[in-house]
């Protein structure tokens, strides 16, 4: 990869939006140096070969698809900020 | 008031378990990212303020069944993201050995509670060193088990492919006794399908002639002089006990720290997407769901925001190949290097941490400096092998840990060597 271009506060704000994390302008500016330091360090990976064969020793763990006792609806909802008639209340879709 | 209160080692006090069983003589602290039914579990975050899990983690259930008394939830870096236990929303934990210094992280509360004598043992979690680092910094024993030996059910996920639940205690034997109870197959974690074993009994068997490999890459320029001296003394102790010590080279380790952070941040950005303020934790306000989610997630601390954002960036279109693919390739090379070295040697040894504990506040503003401190612990998580930190002595009056690492599911041998060292030192 070429040298990473320097990230600025607009880039940070863009990523924050993608990650659904609200930042103030000052906060975004505060992340700029750390981002560039860390992404610069990641360039260590540039010369890792592309053709490393991954090991294939993984196997799926399966079980029969049979209903088993689980959390009750009440328990599942017990930590929700808002509930209505047994459902979670989420923010409105705008 | 107990010693731990001054240290801010506990987030919540409780009293669970305590019946008859093999651990009925032990009090235990449980890291605050491991679910405890009906007892607040916050991961050190404002995002989970007030969250009371409706179920126990498998490790907690097994501790309770074994008669251990769980006396509290221990402080931690927010969601396990840190090397100092300073990123907690509940404030920093202090090192009982010297309260001007950090206890290490992210399981710093667990280590401080054990080191101060407030509990006999504790559970931590280790994603890139979060059990071993605080064990080293506080002068206690901490084990990161083989990936797949201890169920992660009920551990609130940060980086699934790397993290494990692990025991901490003041000696190897107690560490092994806790492992006996928490290890073994669990239907609720598909990656956990290994048989448990009698680790505590194995610990007391003679160590025999072991071969210890010391990778050049883990004892090089990044290691403090004092730490290096303590480590060399530790190797001398192992030699006196009959061990053969060999220098080896593991070139992939030069790439391990960067690979670790790319993978951990990538997994974190996806895992922490679940914290939207709807199913648990305080809700957000705003016009429409994107605004409301972003508002709820503004409660994350800076280090969590940093990792979620960097993970999002590294996994985004156009950058994925440069970061994530490269990191996965580096990970495969690290695994191979461990396999090759552990084919010829019984254990790999290094200082657990290349430095002595930071002063409180010293590393908080420089994320890269904090990440670099994880150079010796993170390769182990990439390889999925078991690794223990045992107290090795002090440098500048602060604890230094010896990190010993063995092959997959070789906990018996690993703990035996650790116990041999502990006795001889």
Automatic annotation (TrEMBL), chain A:
InterPro entries: Asp/Glu-ADT_sf_sub_c, GatC
Any one of the GO BP annotations: translation
GO molecular function: ATP binding; glutaminyl-tRNA synthase (glutamine-hydrolyzing) activity
Disulfide bond as UniProt keyword: no
Catalysed conversion reaction: L-glutamyl-tRNA(Gln) + L-glutamine + ATP + H2O = L-glutaminyl-tRNA(Gln) + L-glutamate + ADP + phosphate + H(+); L-aspartyl-tRNA(Asn) + L-glutamine + ATP + H2O = L-asparaginyl-tRNA(Asn) + L-glutamate + ADP + phosphate + 2 H(+)
Enzyme Commission number(s) from the entry: 6.3.5.-
Start and end residues of each stretch annotated as Disordered: 62-94
Highest taxon of source: Archaea
Pfam families: GatC
Keywords annotated in UniProt: ATP-binding, Ligase, Nucleotide-binding, Protein biosynthesis
Family: Belongs to the GatC family.
Oligomer status and interactors: Heterotrimer of A, B and C subunits.
Function: Allows the formation of correctly charged Asn-tRNA(Asn) or Gln-tRNA(Gln) through the transamidation of misacylated Asp-tRNA(Asn) or Glu-tRNA(Gln) in organisms which lack either or both of asparaginyl-tRNA or glutaminyl-tRNA synthetases. The reaction takes place in the presence of glutamine and ATP through an activated phospho-Asp-tRNA(Asn) or phospho-Glu-tRNA(Gln).
Protein's recorded name: Aspartyl/glutamyl-tRNA(Asn/Gln) amidotransferase subunit C
GN (gene name): gatC
From TrEMBL, chain B:
Pfam family, any one: Amidase
GO biological-process terms attached to the record: translation
EC nos: 6.3.5.7
Catalytic site: 31, 106, 130
Magnesium found in the keyword field: no
Domain Amidase as annotated: residue spans: 19-415
Name this polypeptide is given: Glutamyl-tRNA(Gln) amidotransferase subunit A
Binding partners and assembly: Heterotrimer of A, B and C subunits.
Protein function: Allows the formation of correctly charged Gln-tRNA(Gln) through the transamidation of misacylated Glu-tRNA(Gln) in organisms which lack glutaminyl-tRNA synthetase. The reaction takes place in the presence of glutamine and ATP through an activated gamma-phospho-Glu-tRNA(Gln).
Region entry Disordered, spans: 78-111
Swiss-Prot/TrEMBL keywords: ATP-binding, Ligase, Nucleotide-binding, Protein biosynthesis
Domain of life: Archaea
Top enzyme category: ligase
Reaction equations catalysed: L-glutamyl-tRNA(Gln) + L-glutamine + ATP + H2O = L-glutaminyl-tRNA(Gln) + L-glutamate + ADP + phosphate + H(+)
Record organism: Halorutilus salinus
């Amino acid at each position: 990869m070429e040298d990473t271009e320097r990230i600025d506060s607009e880039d940070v704000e863009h990523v924050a939006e993608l990650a659904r994390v609200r930042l103030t302008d000052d906060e975004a500016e505060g992340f700029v140096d750390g981002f560039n330091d860390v992404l610069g360090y990641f360039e260590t990976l540039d010369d890792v070969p592309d053709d490393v064969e991954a090991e294939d020793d993984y196997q799926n763990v399966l079980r029969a698809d049979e209903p088993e006792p689980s959390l009750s609806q009440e328990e599942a909802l017990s930590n929700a900020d808002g509930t209505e008639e047994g459902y979670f209340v989420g923010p409105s879709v705008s | 008031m107990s010693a731990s209160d001054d240290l801010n080692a506990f987030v919540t006090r409780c009293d669970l378990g305590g019946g008859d069983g093999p651990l009925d003589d032990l009090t235990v602290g449980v890291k605050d990212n491991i679910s405890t039914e009906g007892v607040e579990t916050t991961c050190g975050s404002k995002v989970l303020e007030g969250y009371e899990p409706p179920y126990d983690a498998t490790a907690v259930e097994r501790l309770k069944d074994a008669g251990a008394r769980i006396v509290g939830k221990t402080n931690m870096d927010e969601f396990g993201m840190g090397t100092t236990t300073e990123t907690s929303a509940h404030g920093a934990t202090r090192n009982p050995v010297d309260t001007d210094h950090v206890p290490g992280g992210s399981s710093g509360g667990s280590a401080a509670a054990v080191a101060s004598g407030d509990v006999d043992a504790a559970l931590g979690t280790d994603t890139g060193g979060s059990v071993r680092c605080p064990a080293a910094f506080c002068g206690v024993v901490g084990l990161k088990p083989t990936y797949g030996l201890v169920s992660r059910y009920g551990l609130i996920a940060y980086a699934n492919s790397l993290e494990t639940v692990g025991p901490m205690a003041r000696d190897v034997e107690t560490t092994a006794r806790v492992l006996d109870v928490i290890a073994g197959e669990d239907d609720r974690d598909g990656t956990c399908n290994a048989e448990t074993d009698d680790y505590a009994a194995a610990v007391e068997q003679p160590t025999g002639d072991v071969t210890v490999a010391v990778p050049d890459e883990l004892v090089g320029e990044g290691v403090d002089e004092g730490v290096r001296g303590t480590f060399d003394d530790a190797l001398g102790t192992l030699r006196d006990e009959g061990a053969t010590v060999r220098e080896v080279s593991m070139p992939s380790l030069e790439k391990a720290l960067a690979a670790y952070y790319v993978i951990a941040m990538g997994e974190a950005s996806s895992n922490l997407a679940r914290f939207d303020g709807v199913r648990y934790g305080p809700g957000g306000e705003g016009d429409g769901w994107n605004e409301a989610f972003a508002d709820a997630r503004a409660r994350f601390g800076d280090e969590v925001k940093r990792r979620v954002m960097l993970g999002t960036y590294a996994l985004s279109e156009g950058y994925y190949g440069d970061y994530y693919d490269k990191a996965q390739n580096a990970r495969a090379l690290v695994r191979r290097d461990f396999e090759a070295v552990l084919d010829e040697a019984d254990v790999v040894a290094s200082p657990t941490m290349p430095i002595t504990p930071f002063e409180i506040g010293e590393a908080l503003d420089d994320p890269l400096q904090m990440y670099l401190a994880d150079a010796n612990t993170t390769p182990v998580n990439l390889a999925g092998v078991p690794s223990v930190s045992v107290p090795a002595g002090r440098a500048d009056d602060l604890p230094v840990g010896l990190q010993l690492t063995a092959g997959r599911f070789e906990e018996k041998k690993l703990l035996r060597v650790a116990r041999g060292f502990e006795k001889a030192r």
